[in-house]
Amino acid sequence: MKKLLAISGLAVMATLAACAGPYPREYAAYDGYYDGYYGPYAGGYWNGDGYFYYSDGRGGYRRDDDRHFRHESFENGSPFHAERDRRD
Fold first, then answer.
1. What would the DSSP string read from start to end of the chain?
2. What is the pLDDT, as a whole number, of residue 54?
3. Are the beta carbons of 42 and 54 closer than 8 angstroms?
4. Domain total for the chain?
5. Tell me, what's the pLDDT at 32?
6. Which strands form 78-82's sheet, in the order they lie side by side?
7. Which region, left, alpha or beta, applies to residue 56 given φ > 0 means left and ψ of -120 to 50 means alpha?
8. Domain hosting residue 51, numbered range
9. In this predicted structure, what is the pLDDT of residue 1?
10. Residue 16 — φ and ψ, nearest 5°?
């Protein structure tokens, strides 16, 4: 049992280390909050215009004009990590 727990712990640490990537955190993922309005979070990015663009599930992205994605916490918003940031 102890051996199984040790192996599981190592697997979790390896997975987390792989997610970190070679870039500083500010370039790798951005924290935000999402209220679930569009369904399960399937990806997206913060753009230079200040809006979040979320994946439409078909390879495209749509702008969140109604601010269901925000940098700051808000009522019914749950934390998430965006894949990338396209602020130029």
1. -HHHHHHHHHHHHHHHHHHH-SS-HHHH-EEEEE--TTSS---EEEETTS-EEEE-SSS-EEE-TT-SEESS--TT-EEEEESEEE--
2. 94
3. yes
4. 1
5. 92
6. 69-70, 30-34, 78-82
7. alpha
8. 2-86
9. 53
10. -65, -40
Asked if residue 63 lies in contact with residue 48, where contact means CB atoms within 8 angstroms, the answer is no
11-69 per-position pLDDT tens digit: 444 444 444 444 344 445 668 999 999 999 999 998 989 899 999 989 999 999 999 99
Residue type, 4: L
* Residue environment code for 30-47, b if the CB has 16+ CB neighbours within 10 A, otherwise e: bebbbeeebeebeebbbb
d(CA 68, CA 85): 17
